[in-house]
Amino acid sequence: MKPIPPHIRVVFPGRASFHIAQMSPVNEFLSPPGPDGLRHCQTHYQEQQPPPRQQQLPPVFGGPHYRHAPEAFAMQESMLLVKQPAGVETLNLQDSSFSTRASVMAEDANGIYCRSCSTEQVDAAIFKCFLRVHGCCARDGQTQLTVRHQKDGIRNIVLNNPKKRNALSLSMLTSLRSDILADVDSDDLRVIIISAEGPVFSSGHDLKELTSAQGKEYHSRVFEVCSEVMSLIQDIPVPVIAKVNGVATAAGCQLVASCDIAVATEKSTFATPGVNVGLFCSTPAVAIGRAVPRKVAMEMLFTGAPISAHDALLHGLVSKVVPEERLEEETMAIARRVCESSRPVVALGKATFYRQMAQGRDAAYTTASRVMVDNLALRDGQEGIRAFLEKRKPVWTNSTEKEHE
Amino acid sequence: MKPIPPHIRVVFPGRASFHIAQMSPVNEFLSPPGPDGLRHCQTHYQEQQPPPRQQQLPPVFGGPHYRHAPEAFAMQESMLLVKQPAGVETLNLQDSSFSTRASVMAEDANGIYCRSCSTEQVDAAIFKCFLRVHGCCARDGQTQLTVRHQKDGIRNIVLNNPKKRNALSLSMLTSLRSDILADVDSDDLRVIIISAEGPVFSSGHDLKELTSAQGKEYHSRVFEVCSEVMSLIQDIPVPVIAKVNGVATAAGCQLVASCDIAVATEKSTFATPGVNVGLFCSTPAVAIGRAVPRKVAMEMLFTGAPISAHDALLHGLVSKVVPEERLEEETMAIARRVCESSRPVVALGKATFYRQMAQGRDAAYTTASRVMVDNLALRDGQEGIRAFLEKRKPVWTNSTEKEHE
Amino acid sequence: MKPIPPHIRVVFPGRASFHIAQMSPVNEFLSPPGPDGLRHCQTHYQEQQPPPRQQQLPPVFGGPHYRHAPEAFAMQESMLLVKQPAGVETLNLQDSSFSTRASVMAEDANGIYCRSCSTEQVDAAIFKCFLRVHGCCARDGQTQLTVRHQKDGIRNIVLNNPKKRNALSLSMLTSLRSDILADVDSDDLRVIIISAEGPVFSSGHDLKELTSAQGKEYHSRVFEVCSEVMSLIQDIPVPVIAKVNGVATAAGCQLVASCDIAVATEKSTFATPGVNVGLFCSTPAVAIGRAVPRKVAMEMLFTGAPISAHDALLHGLVSKVVPEERLEEETMAIARRVCESSRPVVALGKATFYRQMAQGRDAAYTTASRVMVDNLALRDGQEGIRAFLEKRKPVWTNSTEKEHE
């Protein structure tokens, strides 16, 4: 392990995001800019109880959606996103004991991300990032675990490790998290589609990472990050659609269950076979048990036997089953429909759905009724109603501006 | 706005119910009869925190069913029901600053209700009510928003504004609430069927009521009353059946989801298209999210696309799908089956179902086990068992009398 | 009622279990062995509030699975299981005022149980038990209410009172409980199948036990024990499969809903007809309401009408519907599949599933993530992964030994 030089200064000439994804269970935070205009990134190790992060988080972090979902903070404990709309961003890494499992990712204004790398490569990564921001191509010879591209508000994230059956290794999870979170509060993003390269959507965790040799702390980290990614899908302000064409097992099945919507081809199958390798699918069961009836979940979990796409539809694990040749079209139809609505209205609706569903009926109505009134106060809320009454198409601002108080 | 004269005295010569449905967020209560035999209705305005009502409620209010469901009180905050089994009922309206949005409804012993009206018409309304109780016909030239008729224990409530697609305007909701609550604790009422006139079951809220011009307080009131009506359906002691023949959207779909049972024709469709007009169906989602799997709810909410009656059945939004020509017969078969059972047994069962479903398994069993023992102590509980053992039809008392302590 | 002699000493020459199932609401506990090597069984009557049992329970009671499910203790309040792996077991019954409704059951090392009996017969029962352990056949002329046999890890429990439509009388429930709990923590037991003799799976409670003549306390006891058995099915460490070929009504339907998995034949039907005999199926609704959509549960409960096996499958009440001739095969296929996996892995997974499902999403992920890490620390957890990576069949220890801390 090579120590990080105490002061790496990187100058980003454009709008850029800088992620620090810390694999080991540490706390880290960025200071507000000092008199020299620098932010300081402090990383603390070995602390078992993370201090309350809300107070220490720089104001630059997170969008309004996280504000009323305090668990979202905890979820993103190990990822800090520094946005500098324009001009110079200087990052100070003061800690010299960076773990080898730490990774640094950076992405430019277009949401194109730089490969994650171990800290030994941090200089190179930052350099590559620098190049990217300048429009240069930074290749590092490795296949990207996930591929992201975005157009007209629709972000496609493709699990891109078909040789390893798109196993949700820690790197894959981190890469997926990074692709989900990148500029997630930007108005340009309206919906996310998660699909996969190859015949296996995802086979779940990488069992090689779960041996005694890796150690308990590493195992903990894997399930923490996995739970974080699964929860993140439900907590971000845009809908997430799983586009499934093949086998989805264990945490791969959990990923499908966690998405807001799932479109699957007829040949797709779903299973939780962990019990067969001595690792009961207990974390996948959190998502699957909340998606399908108990008896269905139980049979899947106890036998490990796959269910067909048809049965998955019947029991609510997926939203739609289509012939393979129509998968793209049907998924895009849903995605485009989301794009036709107002961003803050969808964001408010999604957050409220999950919030009220965790409450009793009466509390749920109190929550949802208040949100309806807030929704109506939005400029887009009133524009929608006006357009309806005037029999014309609405023109959304997609902003959170209010029409009335 | 015409001030209400401080003392309107109305004499009802028969058994009568008198509703005061107050649209504005006020508190009001009826005093116990004074030395002059009068009850005083006091109305307070502008209070933000309603005082605890339980203590102030006159003993005449509510049946035993509301006693162990404290939320039912809050729900009916703005409606007080004064029953006078026989003789003279005198009502004193002491407040002179009645809002124009207030309405007064009265109904006679046969459950025939008097039209709601603005307070400017209060004298006339009370007069009409008076006439009704005397068997006269009080017509006011307006179409009734809901029509109610009751026979052999089965109450039919028909949404009766087909020109406006049976929009759940505040008046419609109030009228519906009134029809649901009227004599709801009477032994004569065994089951309620909610249906609609015209090709649209209900299109949800009236968007004209949700503009900035109406103002935030009015919006709040709309969703409060709507949530109240939806909850009421589940909290009253008799089953409520939705009889759907057509389109049910937004709060109209919520109404179907809120009913205990729903019978729909094959052509019926269900949607939550609020997102298309910039108003995400967050309150409908409270009922729909508790009726269908999450993935189904999410796709409906994010896309606004309708689902067929078949899919609604598949996912639990309706109980039965029938050809149009069999809708009446199938709905009545269920209603009549309810009428064949003992009223207090059904009431106990319904209340317990919703109560235990909100609890964890062990607490639910404690609740339900106690109720079973209470149920067995009822005269009708023992009669049912005796009849079964003696191989004869049971003869219900339909009373809450006990066979043993 | 004949008083129990203060000191009955019974010597079991083999490994044996001794159950004391106490029907009346009493507290009882066994002392740790005294200097004379005897355990004392103390029975307290008339106490309304049971004292905290955890502290008083002898270490011999219960397996590790009960340790982290405190409700399981309360559940088994009236049953104490004394295991003596080998040698002499002497039981001291010091209380002379045994209730007539108490029963004593004993079973030998092969899990063959001795008939339950009233306390008047206690001497005889213990004597028979003694005979059984010595390999003699103890017949008492009565048909056994449940029949249990176990082979290759698969325990079959057959409801065996077809003449009474396998009514879940208190004796039947007690017998079923005894069959479920017998040696439930033994590694020899991997899965339980509950089936029934005759065309009726079970018709629910025995209505003759629910008359006023029996009294409120007895009714309470019936529903307590019933709730206990239903909960027990979900709380024990092995999966329980209902194998249904016929009618399952009321508590019989509840039994199917409570099992982890249910395989039913096409001709099977399911109903909650209590409302027809004046006893609303409120306790069955606890299990059924958690298995099927609300609208389905409500229609079943309010009308009492049966649903087909097909509809039961559609709505999640059963896991699989098969032709009658394939019932045995399909059920055994699932059971054998369970036997192929590691016992502690299945036990951990089952307990975690129910635990996390009662929590909110974030707490559920915290629970399940910890369990995954614990699962990986098991010798069998690591063996499974090794076998997978080495492409061979795993060889389970089926013990809770750890590979790493």
Automatic annotation (TrEMBL), chains A, B, C:
Subcellular location: Mitochondrion
Listed InterPro entries: ClpP/crotonase-like_dom_sf, Enoyl-CoA_hydra/iso, Enoyl-CoA_hydra_C, Mitochondrial_ECH-domain
Keyword vocabulary terms for this entry: Fatty acid metabolism, Lipid metabolism, Mitochondrion, Transit peptide
UniProt entry tagged with the keyword Lipid metabolism: yes
Source organism, top-level taxon: Eukaryota
MF GO annotations: hydro-lyase activity
Pfam families: ECH_1
GO term, biological process aspect, one: fatty acid metabolic process
Job description of the protein: May play a role in fatty acid biosynthesis and insulin sensitivity.
Family: Belongs to the enoyl-CoA hydratase/isomerase family.
UniProt-listed PANTHER family: ENOYL-COA HYDRATASE DOMAIN-CONTAINING PROTEIN 3, MITOCHONDRIAL, PTHR43602
Designated name of the protein: Enoyl-CoA hydratase domain-containing protein 3, mitochondrial
Source species of the chain: Synaphobranchus kaupii
